[in-house]
Structures are given as structure tokens and as C-alpha cells.
Backbone:
């Protein structure tokens, strides 16, 4: 069994790359951002104030999160599509500052990786969740490329999405994720950093496969 950690800012291409890599290697793909989003979605549906979460422990105790075959389940319901809005992105970024929320999800993420080989992507996988991952990648891309990727994704569902506003939202989310006290987004010391702004998916995958072969992981 082995694990690959992929971290990086919003829109850096982590999900596309991690999913394609997991397919190629025939191992599990785990999107940890979807877990933060699912909790934010539930909190939002229940009108909970994310900054004043006095019942957080009860909320977490009464919540069941699972990730299977590329789908996120919240209390047994598949919420994979419902969590992909800009509103939920912002709420997830706020909620993810909370250490109790992080402990709760990190525990689930580690349990999953004990049972199978994984490509796990997020913000703190190489630094906190899987410090002993067999390969760590820190993926970046320019802000304009990242915004363009998110814009193209969102545009399919919402014709009113505005490029400049989206860019500001992404920059503000990056700032939240990088500056937060608990498990901020940062490159693990032993991670390979690469900018995929000018690389296509196949080139990125081949780059990672070479790293895996070089480390005798595959
Ligand atoms: O990767 P994403 O955009 O779906 O993540 C949504 C938010 O969740 C992101 O703004 C920060 C948070 N997150 C986190 O704090 N730690 C992770 N491992 C994954 C996501």
C-alpha cells in the first residue's frame, strides 16, 4: 500500500490531476476539500453561524461523512453536486479554520488511507494528514489560469458568473487558507513543487509517474 499527497491553492488543478492519477494507478482518489464543503453545506442548511459554533461538538457527533468512488456522502446522502457553489466554497474556507472541525476530518482521512492506497488532495495532506506519504506534490498555477479553470467549471452551471469577481474570491480564499493559524496551506519540506500553468494533464501525470518510479513506489 502507498499514498500520494497533493496540496495546493484553489484551482491549481489538484482534483483533475489527482483523479486522473488515481485512475491510472488503479487506486482510490480522495478529495478532502469535499469533506469541508459537505460540513459547510450542512451548517448552512441548518442556519448555523460558522464563527459562533457553540454546539459544534454535538453537530460533529451527529454528522456522518464518507467518501466513496469519487462521491461525497453526508449523512448517507450523496451531496457531490450540491457542494460545488461559490457560496459553499467561501463557507468551507471559514469553517476549515476551526481546529475541532479539522481534527474530526483529519481522523476520517487517516482512517481511509489505512485501508487502501490513495491519492489524497487538499491543503494539509503532506504537512498534517499524511506526513509519511510516499510522494508529496505541491501544485501551483498562476492566478489567471486558476481563475480561468474555475470560471469554465462554474459557467457550465451558472451563466452569470463574473471572471473578475471570481478572481477576487479565489484570492481571498487563498489568503484565508494560507494565513490561518491551524494547518495553513503550505508546502511540506519534502514535497515536490511544480507549476502546471503551461502543462497539460498528460505532461503532469508523466512528471508524477517519473517521480514515483524514481522513488521505487511503483
Ligand atoms: O479544495 P476545495 O476548494 O474544494 O476546498 C474547500 C475549502 O476547504 C478550502 O478553501 C480550504 C478547505 N480545505 C482545507 O482547509 N483543508 C483541506 N485538506 C482541504 C480543503
Residues:
Amino acid at each position: 500500500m502507498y499514498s500520494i499527497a497533493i496540496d495546493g491553492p484553489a484551482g491549481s488543478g489538484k482534483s483533475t490531476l489527482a483523479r486522473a492519477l488515481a485512475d491510472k494507478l488503479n487506486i482510490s482518489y480522495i478529495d478532502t476539500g469535499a469533506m469541508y464543503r459537505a460540513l459547510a453545506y450542512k451548517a448552512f442548511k441548518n442556519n448555523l453561524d460558522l464563527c459562533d459554533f457553540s454546539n459544534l461538538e454535538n453537530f460533529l457527533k451527529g454528522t456522518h461523512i464518507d467518501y466513496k468512488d469519487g462521491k461525497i456522502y453526508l449523512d448517507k446522502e450523496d451531496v457531490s453536486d450540491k457542494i460545488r457553489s461559490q457560496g459553499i466554497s467561501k463557507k468551507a474556507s471559514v469553517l476549515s479554520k476551526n481546529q475541532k472541525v479539522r481534527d474530526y476530518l483529519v481522523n476520517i482521512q487517516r482512517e481511509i488511507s489505512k485501508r487502501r492506497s490513495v491519492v489524497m488532495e487538499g491543503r494539509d495532506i503532506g504537512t498534517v494528514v499524511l506526513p509519511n506519504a510516499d510522494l508529496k506534490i505541491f501544485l501551483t498555477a498562476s492566478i489567471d489560469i486558476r481563475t480561468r479553470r474555475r470560471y469554465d467549471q462554474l459557467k457550465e452551471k451558472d451563466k452569470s458568473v463574473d471572471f473578475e469577481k471570481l478572481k477576487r474570491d479565489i484570492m481571498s480564499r487563498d489568503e484565508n487558507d494560507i494565513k490561518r493559524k491551524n494547518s495553513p496551506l503550505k508546502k511540506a519540506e519534502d514535497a515536490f513543487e511544480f507549476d502546471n500553468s503551461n502543462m497539460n494533464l498528460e505532461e503532469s501525470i508523466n512528471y508524477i509517474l517519473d517521480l514515483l518510479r524514481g522513488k521505487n513506489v511503483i
In short: The chain has one domain: 3-209.
